[in-house]
Amino acid sequence: MGVLTAxxxxxxxxxxxxxxxxxLAPLLWVGPAMLLIAVVVLWPVVIMIRTAFQHISPDGxxxxxxxxxxxxxxxxxxxxxxxxxxTVIWVVSIVxxxxxxxxxxxxxxxxxxxxxxxxxWALIAPWAASxxxxxxxxxxxxxxxxxxxxxxxxxxxxxxxxNNNASDWLGRPGSAFTWMIIVAIFVSIPxxxxxxxxxxxxxxxxxxxxxxxxxxxxxxxxxxITLPLLRPAFIVALLINVMNVxxxxxxxxxxxxxxxxxxTSTTTTFMYQLKQSYIGESAAMSVVNFGMVVIIVLIYLRVxxxxxxxxx
Amino acid sequence: MSTVLxxxxxxxxxxxxxxxxxxxxxTRTLIFAGLAYLVAAFFLLPYIEMVISALxxxxxxLDRNYLPSHFDWYNxxxxxxxxxxxxxxxxxxxxxGATVLVLLVAVPAAYYTARQRFRGRNAFLLLVLVTQxxxxxxxxxxxYREFLSFNMLxxxxxxxxxxxxxxxxxxxxxxxxxxxxxxAELEEAAFIDGSSRIGALxxxxxxxxxxxxxxxLIFTFIxxxxxxxxxxxxxxxxxxxxxxxxxxxxxxxxxVDWSHLFxxxxxxxxxxxxxxxxxxxKVVGGLTAGSxx
Lengths: 312, 293
Known about the structure:
The complex is a heterodimer of chains A (312) and B (293). In chain A, a hairpin with a 5-residue loop joins strand 1 and strand 2. With 312 residues, chain A is mainly α. Helices cover 70% and strands 2% of the residues of chain A. Chain A has a domain at 80-264: MetI-like fold, CATH 1.10.3720. Chain B has two domains: 4-40; 81-292, MetI-like (MetI-like fold), CATH 1.10.3720. In chain B, helix 3 runs antiparallel to helix 9 and helix 9 (210-226) packs across helix 12. At the A-B interface, helix 1, helix 2, helix 4, helix 5 and helix 6 of A face helix 1, helix 3, helix 4, helix 5 and helix 6 of B.
């Protein structure tokens, strides 16, 4: 229990003394939310884990228990090592670049200048819009025949001509994956910048005044005051990004469908592709992914809620 | 004259000194403003390109230029003949339904956890925080098989339930924060006047927490509206899928129906960006409140 006010502890005590229907009152208020969580979040996890150990025909009939077979098949997938490596690159590069760029941008958008509101408003567009639709625009803009990015790169002399190997960005696994990382960074920046902005605004201004009086240089002030005080906001934003990026599906799906072959897939898109024909193996992949998700959640809870005494 | 000059100069010097910080500021400010505008414009580019592509005349769709010779509204008229209106209606139903459901379950939960300390309160809040971190993508197979067994594939209700479940946490945090900030004495005054707890909630607390309610409402609506992978998994026919899945289906294996795709994207995206701007300042609070509290 956290801090209870005197009044509240009195009401708790009164309620505890008499076992009455009043004891069920919390359930009345919180119950519907718990029911929704149970049906939509918890039960699917149970089914998913069960499916991973079932033998299911492509048309959906349960043919019996499969033991660990689904995991063995998954392990034997020739594309799996590449997919795992790519997933690590995907998460690390996107989150690292996003957080670094957001640190700079939050500093910029924290300055006072005319039209700041409008500028901040423009920044939210990729956050508000569906990631899927942003990815479609990028796919179109990278079109080898007439994509506007290729038009621009031809204009500035980086590319020469259209419909050639160089302009077919999404046709080559390496360049396709790089572009998808760029798109993922693009759509992750707005939330991260806003989260860091909120952190910056929470730093009391008198600390900065004290630093100024002491004659600290701007860089020194940033390193010894801003960065340490920004740490909690930074870590929360970072972990939320790790979760979002790891589970990211629409970017890869809309731009390459994970192809050619599985050469631009991550574990998330691979899980979806498996689901079309081998649902048991797909469930096994999901269980692995879910294990990853649980680890991220535990780290998140460790550094946030459990890091400070208690949940409230 | 000459005797006056030094004094005047001194006076001006004094004035100058005062002005100096103000003069120095504008160049700095201008640089920051210029940079910020550039960044802002950069983040708008894909959506500008989306609008331009939607307005390209059919015969200029594949031209290699930044702007067509003129804009043509044909795509925005023609798209309705593809059954797009039906998918738009499904998206509205899913997003609207999810929003109503979220408010129905989150308002009482947020109110009660803000006002009362009870056994299991911390456990409940932890559960909400965990659901917020979870994403439907990770448990897609489970969701698919669950709704298959309920015989609820292709139903609007299934999409409402999933979207509500995964967006409820945001509403709980933001409403919890707003209710906590309203003094309980205001409600106690209503109790004395013979009002019930629910009466006080509706007459006193909710109206005061209205900005929080509106934020939760808009946020849930947009998330459900933009949701893609669950809808892709739980729907199987063009008649039952929401907008995002319809737009995805314009991308064929060998050909992409770009003109309908962009007209549809503009219709689905631009209103959402405008709506989001209304709550822009409050969203981070809702997304991180659970961890910071």
